[in-house]
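Table S5 (text form). Sequence records supplied for joint modeling of the two-component complex.
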Amino acid sequence: MKREIVVTGIGAVTPLGVGARTLHERWSAGTSGIEDGEGTCTEFEPTEHLSIKEVRRADRFTQFALVASDEAIREAGWDGEPPYDPRRVGCIIGTGIGGIGTLTNSHQVLLEQGAKKVSPLSIPLMMGNAAAGAVTMRHKLYGPSFAPLSACAAGAHAIGEAVELIEAGRADAVVAGGSEAALVPLSRAAFGALDAMSESGISRPFDVRRDGFVMGEGAAVLIIEDAENARARGANILGYIRGYGATSDGYHLTAPDKEGLGAAEAMRLALADAELAPEDIVYVNAHGTSTPLNDRAETRAIKAALGDAAKDIPVSSTKSAIGHLLGAAGAVEAVATILALRDRIAPPTLGYEEAEEGLDLDYVPGKARPLDIDGKPAVGLSNAFGFGGHNAVLCLEAA
Amino acid sequence: MATAVTPEAVEKVVFDALPQFGAEPSEISREASFEDLDVDSLDLAELSQIIEDEFGVQLKGDDVGKIKTVGDAVDMVVSRAG
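The corresponding structure-token record, covering 481 residues in total, follows.
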């Protein structure tokens, strides 16, 4: 029998500020965290949250994950220690790139000062699993831990795989999320060379004038538990992870399949896993990167997966407010989706004004809108697609 | 040009380096153990790099394993230089 999986705590560090509620409230109010063409976590000051030793032992992407996990764990009521045997608590924190800031700094030292000056901390800080490891050390979690590396789908994969661990009976709870801190000259230059990044510096998903994604940084972490256990300990349940669908395009290293076949199949799988129909979906948090290719393919995929119901479902993109957080995006957007569903609102796709032919879904222009769902459960989809053709979709319900 | 290796000079470099690893300055003394100062193997790898840079003395893995206190580290650097 399928287990019921709940979310009991959430945390986030984003360009809109520190805190999951901050993200939700500011995005819903129409505030953008993008400045000068980037989504930087300007309100994040690591030493306000971490000791000097923790700060220097952690790349910025790990610092984000530690602070987001602290918030989520506090909310879940795990103060001090987890409510389960710590060997049954896992940790999965995905990333697109890992500690690229550490990598490029160390490489500069190597070139300018020689091999003997390269810090012994270089590898332990840059490795993509560093955030997952650091979170297990901070909270003394002894269950399975690792980092999915699936580019911009990593955060969603982390949550989906956390569900799988619990359903398989290999963990009672998992601290899961995604983190990214890639605002360094190398990634700017490399994404720029790919022609994927916005030259205008404006993130306006689905708008005909969109010209690429705006890079952002940050993290989000969710506390995911078996529902029976969570209820038994009297936990406050924020929402449910009803379904998870993961596929691959098997098509191209960077471009999505034009028809969005893999993405559509991931949405169908997530719905089937949730044992729900398209009519049950009241909101879609799109991957919506603001690249010409993604937004076109994703629109087709949503129509293919949700059929006639698609035209009536509000679809919006968190990336319109914070940019593209790469490996953190799937987790940050899952958090944003749960809070939007909780408040029964669809936050807006900021900057969306001019339609493109064929892109004719309800992209929630202008401002947040109440979800008119009467007594229906507040169930939505959160899409995440990555370079490499990785697709991960979560079906989420707010309590 | 490496600095002359005297016990005083090594002690100063080591004492100055430890706070950046998170050690409490008031607790740093020759007698203090690295464990008590919360200075672990990764910190000692960094400290070895600082010492080599300053004095041209290399501390290798085996050496670092024998070091328990701040004084041990200072003495080992001085004896290696001699």
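Note: The radius of gyration of chain B is 11 Å.
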